[in-house]
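Protocol step 4 of 5: obtain the predicted structure for the target chain.
Materials: sequence only (see below). No template structures provided, no constraints applied. The aim of this step is simply to have a reference model before the mutagenesis design in step 5. Sequence pasted as it appears in the construct record:
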Amino acid sequence: MKINERIEKIGGKYVVLPKRGKKKLGTHDTYKEALAQLRAIEISKAKNESQVLTYDQFILEKKSNHPQGYKAPEGSRRDAELDRAAKLYREGKTDEAAKIRREMEERARKKSNWKNTPRKDSKAANESRLNEAKKKGGCNLSKETEAKIRAVAKKKGYTFGSLKSEYCKGLGAYVSSGSRPGMTAHQWAMARVNAASPSKSWANVKKSKGK
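Step 4 output (C-alpha cells):
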C-alpha cells in the first residue's frame, strides 16, 4: 500500500503531515507515537473508512473489547451499557439486561441520521423471547418467526432445527455481546440465521436430507 503521509520533526515535536501541504494530522512527543498514527491512517484506508483516525482514536479503538461496527469505543456510554448488559446476562438477570439493550437501540433509532426501520414483528420477538434464549434446548418462538426460519432453511437446504438454534443463539448474543446501533433482537437473530453456513466457524448448521 502506498503511504501518502509523512512525519516531520518541527519545534521538537514529531508531526504527521499529508504528502502535500502543511495541515497537521497529529502532533506527538515521540517518533514512536507519530509512527503509530501513521499506521492507524493506513489501517483506516485498508478498511475503506473515509475518516482518518487520530492517534488517540486509534488507541481507544484498539483497547475496545467490542467490534468496531458496534460503535462502542472504550469509555463511551455505549461501551459502558454493553458491558453492564453483558454482566447482568451472565448473572442470569436477563430481563434487566434486555431492558438496557432495548433502551440503547431505541435511542439509536431516534437519532436524526437513523435510516433503517425495525421489522413489523420485531417488537413481539424482541424482549419476550430473550429469557427463553438462555434456557437449555433452545427457545420458544412465534409461528410467524418460525415460518421465517423455515423459509431460510428450505432455500438454503438446511434443517429447521439447526437454524432455529442459530436464531436462539442470536437472541442471546444480542444481549450478552451487543449489536450494531439501532438493531432489534429479532433483526440481529435473523441476521445470524441468514448468514449461517457450514463454512462459518461460529455456526453449527446441518444440511437437510437429500441436499
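Step 4 remarks: Residues 119-125, 132-137 have pLDDT under 50 and may be disordered. Residues 6 and 165 are 51 Å apart (CA to CA).
Proceed to step 5.
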